[in-house]
Amino acid sequence: MENNIMRKQGIAITNALNEYKRFTEEVEVLKSTISDKIKAYFDKNAKQYKIDSTKYTTTTFNNDWFCEWISLSVPISKLNAKKGTKPHGYLSFQLCFSGETVFHKAINKKPFPLIHIIFWEDMVYKESYFKYPVSKKEYFEDNSGKFIFIDDENKYVLSPHYDELKYINCWTYSVELMKINSDNIEEILFKPAIELLESNQLILSNNKALEGVIREYPPLEKFIIE
């Protein structure tokens, strides 16, 4: 009996690892698709911003040998910026699979893979990435401010609003990774990002592809900590 139980456990582990391998292969395809398509989409659709360089930065966060998330950071420049100048900011796609980047009890009862789409003055890296719960100290240690929502329904796009640094435009929205494919990637990842960059607001009725894909945040006090 004990040998049968151990064998079943072994089979379950092997099946899970095989499934994980297939999943990581799909994630790599998705990351490559983002990298391949984003500049052309910006060139065609953005009115105020551009992507000068195609040297995008990839960061992988491993917990021992297990990968919890991987990100792709794309440098964004204003349309009239001279080539070679410092980027205006970075549009990052943080593809998250487990741990504090995908789960908080106030947001969902069971964790599932997410993509956090982030615009920030710096790229995502191992010491600075989007995770739950969201810490005020991490964003407002040097400059005072508060978190606000900048979508028309006040629950989908989170933004740190600084009291004095009015020039900083930064935000995050999150979508279900498993619902992204090559047919909808531009409408879900690129189009809303351009709207947010150029108007600092997201109108959900302009972005029908986000319906059922974008993740709703609870009231701020439920997942923001000091």
Word description of this protein:
The protein has 226 residues and is α+β, with helices and mostly antiparallel strands. The chain has one domain (2-225). Helix content is 28%, strand content 25%. The chain contains 3 helices and 10 strands, in the order αββββββαβββαβ. The strands form 3 sheets. Strands 1, 2, 3, 4, 5 and 9 form a 6-stranded antiparallel β-sheet that branches. A hairpin with an 8-residue loop joins strand 7 and strand 8 (158-162). The radius of gyration is 19 Å and the shape is globular. The mean pLDDT is 85.
Q: What gap, in angstroms, lies between the N and C termini? A: 52 Å
Instruction: Write down the overall mean pLDDT.
Output: 85
Oligomeric state of the chains in view? single chain
Residue runs with pLDDT of under 50 for 5 or more positions: none
Count of helical stretches:
3
Cα radius of gyration in angstroms = 19 Å
Task: Indicate the structural class.
Answer: alpha+beta
Question: Biggest β-sheet, characterized?
Answer: 6 strands, antiparallel
Shape: globular
Element order: H for helix, E for strand:
HEEEEEEHEEEHE
How many domains, in number, for the residues?
1
β-strand amount? 25-35%
